[in-house]
Specification:
The complex is a heterodimer of chains A (259) and B (303). With 259 residues, chain A is mainly beta. Helix content of chain A is 14%, strand content 44%. Helices cover 30% and strands 24% of the residues of chain B. Classes of the chains: A mainly beta (259), B alpha+beta (303). Chain A: InterPro entries: DNA_clamp_sf (IPR046938), Pr_cel_nuc_antig (IPR000730), Pr_cel_nuc_antig_C (IPR022649), Pr_cel_nuc_antig_CS (IPR022659), Pr_cel_nuc_antig_N (IPR022648).
């Protein structure tokens, strides 16, 4: 059987918020090392890869590897029924077709449980090769979300150009063009508040703004975002989830400019 | 009707078609389908353009003809075939139909944009019809009801209401002329009688004839087209009480308006099929955003 207890159900809530708009349904692969999820969006342009380590849970038990096909919309509905600091327990029998989610308040005065039907999903797993990225940009996640949101007003595509001087986000559209340049922060108190760029080669790639905006839904999960880029390979947008794991979004670059 | 007498009566014993449960049927075929003795005629099921239900059609590939079967129950009758007595339960009238009528619902459905023919004539629920529909499309001239656009090596079509109405109006006019010349009583207030003919046709308003002719033709039209045709004919919209089963009248018109010629200019084109599931505006926008981006699976290895 599978059982996982999470002290802060708010974390899972945020994770679901971060993926529910890209994916309608997904398979959660549970093993004794944790829970993994990998899925492409409908258009097969982006890929979400999530990994929750078993050590991040208060209690974690998984006797047998288990793949649970979950309708994320339904799961979000259930997660709406809890408050952020409720303790949450997920349970499933081996070969079960339902998943039980239980919430308890900290003082144990209120307990609620929900049972959700599982689905049989036919999803292909992709092997993601180890890549040495030419540019790795670390920046505050809120800053990245802000830039994506601001620039998406101007155009559908966002050009991310990383050079020695810094990283430049630019776009253009009917009303004109917009550019945001970020240089490395020279002094910062905390690492996650600054912008750092590790670069071996300059890279300039174009991406669909709408997808980047959807990735930014993960902003509440982490104060820092890591963007990894190399010429002609997908961009990686990574958010570390404190103690629990990480969520990575892969987005293929645009090959042609929209008119 | 005199036209019926031109038809050759033929007795056909049905064995192969499963749908035709009766062992013995009495078919009345039009001359065009009996001319040569090629037995390539087959019974096929297509969606009836008005109801969307499956209806039985007779299709001859060699003669390039499509005909509809309409059955009348005809019980307690028998025929002599030489010295054998053969009971029959029903009479089937086989009348030629322009495949354009069959296509109309499909065209109307895809009327929002220009599309290749094989994407228009696509039955989502019954994909086995797709090939058949494409085959039938060579029997008729789609240009009569649709606008054509050539784009690179593709020919794209879009339903044109104006053309359709221009194509249908003469049919209505012709049917009403036939009704007038044959002095068929169509007054909605009078009992329909074939035995008694009115001596004075002028006493019945022409509108009655047009409306009756319209009701005959509209049995082959999707509701939307019916409405616009009614408007086009200048008839007030009212619930009709003199609608009756049309029998073969519609094809009489079809024969008059010559359009069953073969048009070889419409070839089927191979285009990637676009699957259209129900999508919200958000999904649509996301799909649009995804255009111009390579598939992510081309970067990663499938396990």
């Amino acid at each position: 059987m599978f059982e996982a207890r999470l002290l802060k159900s708010g974390q899972l809530k945020k994770i679901l918020e971060a993926i529910k708009e890209l994916l309608k349904e997904a398979t959660f692969d549970c093993s004794d090392s944790g829970i993994q999820l990998q899925a492409m969006d409908d258009a097969h342009v982006s890929l979400v890869s999530m990994c929750l380590k078993s050590t991040g849970f208060d209690k974690f038990r998984c006797d047998r590897n288990l793949s649970m096909g979950i309708n994320l919309e339904s799961m979000v509905k259930i997660m709406k029924c809890c408050s952020n600091d409720d303790i949450m327990t997920i349970k499933a029998q081996d070969n079960a077709d339902t998943l039980t989610i239980m919430f308890e308040t900290k003082n144990q005065e209120k307990m609620s449980d929900y049972e959700m039907k599982l689905m049989n999903l036919d999803q292909e797993h992709l092997g993601i090769p180890e890549t040495n990225y030419s540019c790795i940009i670390k920046m505050p996640s809120s800053e990245f979300a802000r830039i994506c949101r601001d620039l998406s007003q101007f155009g559908d595509s966002l050009v991310i150009a990383c050079t020695k001087e810094g990283v430049k986000f630019s776009t253009s559209g009917d009303i004109g063009s917009a550019n945001v340049k970020l240089s490395q922060t020279s002094t910062f108190d905390k690492e996650e508040e600054g912008v750092t760029i590790e670069m071996t080669q300059a890279v300039c790639l174009t991406f669909a703004c709408r997808y980047l905006n959807l990735f930014c839904k993960a902003t509440p999960l982490s104060t820092q975002v890591i963007l990894s880029m190399s010429g002609d390979v997908p961009l990686v947008v990574e958010y570390q989830i404190e103690e629990l794991g990480c969520i990575r979004y892969y987005l293929a670059p645009k090959i042609e400019e929209d008119d | 009707m005199t036209r019926k007498s031109k038809k050759e009566e033929k007795f056909v014993e049905q064995e192969s078609t499963v749908e035709l449960n009766d062992k013995y049927r009495f078919l009345i075929l039009p001359d065009t389908l009996t001319k040569d003795q090629n037995i390539d005629k087959e019974f096929i099921k297509l969606r009836h353009p008005q109801t969307g239900q499956m209806a039985l059609f007779l299709y001859s590939e060699n003669e390039k003809k499509l005909a509809q079967m309409r059955s009348l129950p005809f019980s307690h009758r028998s025929f002599f075939k030489e010295s054998e007595v053969i009971p029959i339960n029903r009479i089937d009238f086989v009348t030629l139909v322009d495949p354009l009528f069959i296509f109309l619902p499909y065209l109307v459905k895809c009327s929002s944009m220009f599309s290749p023919l094989d994407q228009i004539l696509m039955d989502e629920e019954l994909p086995e019809l797709n090939n058949l529909l494409m085959k039938l499309s060579t029997l008729t001239n789609i240009q009569q009801v649709a606008d054509m656009k050539e784009c690179a090596d593709l020919t794209l079509w879009q339903y044109s209401e104006k053309k359709t109405l221009d194509w249908l109006s003469p049919k209505v006019e012709n049917v009403s002329q036939v009704l007038i010349t044959r002095q068929i009583n169509v007054n909605p207030n009078a009992a329909v009688s074939t035995s008694f003919k009115l001596s004075d046709t002028k006493s019945i308003a022409k509108e009655h004839y047009t409306r009756y002719a319209f009701s005959l033709i509209s049995e082959y039209l999707p509701i939307d087209v019916q409405k616009s045709l009614l408007k086009h004919l200048g008839l007030p919209e009212k619930v009709e009480c003199n609608k009756r089963k049309a029998g073969g009248s519609i094809t009489d018109v079809n024969k008059k308006v010559k359009h069953s010629d073969n048009h070889d200019d419409e070839k089927p084109y191979k285009v990637e099929k676009v699957v259209i599931p129900k999508i919200s505006a958000k999904d649509k926008a996301l799909k649009k955003a995804a255009s111009g981006t390579r598939s992510i699976s081309s970067f990663f290895i499938k396990k």
